[in-house]
Amino acid sequence: MEIVYTDGTNKDFIALCQMLDANLNEIVGGEKQRKQYAQYNTLKDIHDAILIYIDEMPVACASFKFYDEHAAEVKRVFVRKEYRGKGISKQLMRVLEERARNKGYSKLILETGSLLVEAIGLYNKLGYKVIENYGQYKEMKESICMEKKI
C-alpha cells in the first residue's frame, strides 16, 4: 500500500472522484437527484488530497479544503467497491486527519447524505458527531453534517 499526497488536479484523484459520482448516482437515483450538491464538489479548491495505491492502482481517495481558520472540510472520500471492507477507509481518514492537524486545523467538518449509511457508520466509528447543518447545507434536509476535533 502506498499513500500519495496531491491536490485536485491529479488525474488519478479526478478518476476516483468520477467513480465516486457514479456510485452516488446509483445510491440516490441519478445525477438529477444530486444536482444541488454538484456545485459544492468541484476540485478547484482542493489543495490537499490523499490517494491510496495498491499494486500501483489508485484504489481510494479523500481530501479536505479550507473552511475557516480552525476547520477544514472533508471532501470526496471514496474507496473502490472491490477494496471495501479491508480497513482502507479508516486508514485513509486517519491519514487525512493527521495531515489536517499538521496544517494547523483543530477540527474537521463534513457533509454526507442520509442515504449514505456506510459513510455515516464509518464517520461515527471514527468519532465524528452530528452537528447542525452548516453553510450551503443548512436548508438541505437530506444532508447530515458532522465534525471531529483533531
Walk me through what this model shows.
The longest helix is centred in the first third of the chain and has 18 residues, at 11-28. This protein has helices at 11-28, 31-38, 88-102, 117-125, and strands at residues 2-6, 48-54, 57-66, 71-79, 107-113, 129-131, 143-149. Helix 1 (11-28) crosses helix 2 (31-38). With 150 residues, it is of the alpha+beta class. It has a single domain (2-149), classed as Gcn5-related N-acetyltransferase (GNAT) (Aminopeptidase). Residues 30-34 have low confidence and may be disordered. Strands 1-2-3-4-5-7-6 form a seven-stranded mixed sheet, sandwiched between helices.
| Portion in strands | 25-35%
- Unreliable residue runs: 30-34
Distance between the termini: 24 Å
Shape: globular
What does the radius of gyration come to?
A: 14 Å
Oligomerization state? single chain
Q: Please list the strands of the largest sheet in the order they lie side by side.
A: 1-2-3-4-5-7-6
CATH class equals: Alpha Beta
Number of strands: 7
Question: Within the CATH hierarchy, at the fold level, what is the topology?
Answer: Aminopeptidase
The second-level CATH architecture is 3-Layer(aba) Sandwich
Helix/strand order: EHHEEEHEHEE
Helix content: 25-40%
Question: What's the name of the CATH homologous superfamily?
Answer: Gcn5-related N-acetyltransferase (GNAT)
SSE class: alpha+beta
Largest sheet: 7 strands, mixed
In round numbers, the mean pLDDT is 90
Number of domain modules: 1
List the total number of helices: 4
